[in-house]
Amino acid sequence: MGAASPLLHFLFVSFPGQGHINPFLRLAKRVAAKGPLVTFSTTLDFGRRIRAAARNNFTADSDSDLIPVGLGFLRFDFFDDGAKPDDPERDVLPILMNRLETNGPSALAELIHLQSAAGRPVSCLVNNPFIPWALDVAADLSIPSAVLWVQSCAVFSTYYHFHHNLAAFPTEDNPDIIVHLPGIPPMTSDDLPTFLLPSNPFKSLTTAILAQFHNIYKARWVFANSFDELEHNAFEALSGIFPIIPVGPLLDLGEFSQEKIKADIWKTADHCLAWLKEQKSKSVVYVSLGSIVMLSADEMAELAFGLKNSGRQFLWVVREDAREFLPEGYEEDMKAEGKGMLVEWSPQEQVLASEAVGCFVTHCGWNSTLEVIAAGVPVVAYPQWGDQVPDAKFLCEVYGVGVRLPAAATRDDVKRCVAVAMDGEEADRMRNRAEKWREVARAAVAIGGSSDKNIEKFVGDVGKWVAVGGAT
Q1: Among 20, 214, 232, 363, which one carries the catalytic annotation?
Q2: Is 242 exposed, middle or buried (0-12, 13-18, 19+ CB in 10 A)?
Q3: What is the pLDDT of residues 366-397, one digit of tens each?
Q4: Residue 386 domain-assigned (yes or no)
Q5: 79-113 confidence digits (pLDDT tens)
Q6: 86 and 202: one domain?
Q7: Do 306 and 414 share a domain, yes or no?
Q8: Is 20 a catalytic site residue?
Q9: Record's family (predicted)?
């Protein structure tokens, strides 16, 4: 493969959302590490925000410069979807989706033509499925394509069965039906992605999610940010219906010299790592509810006082747009009492790798779920909506590494669940199981691991396609 890899050029095209871009960029780096050239693209507006937050994280002077990654190279090249940086509604989902569908296909086609004009024709296009029109562009240009699903295989199967009416789901008339899907434990309405419930208020988001399945058959490869050992039954059950290939966990585990190439739109508070080094082993509660979840003022107060009353040191990620909901003077009081630290954004993988962290209070987004599994840290699961709900079920009931915090949680709930995850025999059992999962997760992406082999085969398959003259 080494001799053919310089001929290969993979174009990764991502939906402009933090939870989509992070695993997508990690897959791009893993593909590049096998030898090809990889161009990473998203909207020009989101690219500007990445560049503004990155500072020293990029090692290239400009977006188009080649960055060595393993045996190959990575570059950035963004497309203009017409977003105005000063438009306060540019990220509102219905507006964003309409703008992408209207302007994205022509902008992407132009970007692909520019690659050919520059002497680097695209061998394969990879997208994440919130921009399904990218598959149409690739098909029109006779370029083979792949899709990365950025949630679990179980959630993919759930949406797939719902979209194709392959199983019975809750309805207005029968809201309490138990959903039975192959390879997945039975799910009640309290276990399902909330966007599939009759009570779901976010109909536009449901439409956007299900639109991913309208043309996914055009992709030659569909990947999942998961690993076989974690969801073996779900992958196996899907293999005879719609095969999906595990390539995760897509994390920065320090195996490349360029693990600092990131795509965060918030500057991380790296100083918290020095603070963690000063704390005792397994003594800190780490709290982060991701980039989108927004708690009410009452929920924030209960979480805040629950953490205080737990008697533990804590590191809490509170975004700027949520700080107004903190109890008055809370951050200053916690700092003065030496109770903990509040930051606006953290280098989460490094935080979870810290010996000081004893448990993770998480919303159970899939990225965070994989990060905590790969870190071997017990979980206090606090899902809010969407796929976070089944993720929490699997963390607590299937993987056995967490305790469920009820919503909306009281301060006593928070104190109790933190104690379960940090103290006593059950905490020891959860930690032992978490550490075993950590080893399995890391083995999957190590050289020769189950996911690494799938990535290598993908690169090899594209190389064969190019070798027989398939490239345009």
Answers
A1: 20
A2: middle
A3: 999 999 999 999 999 999 999 999 999 999 99
A4: yes
A5: 999 988 888 888 888 899 899 999 999 999 999 99
A6: yes
A7: yes
A8: yes
A9: Belongs to the UDP-glycosyltransferase family.
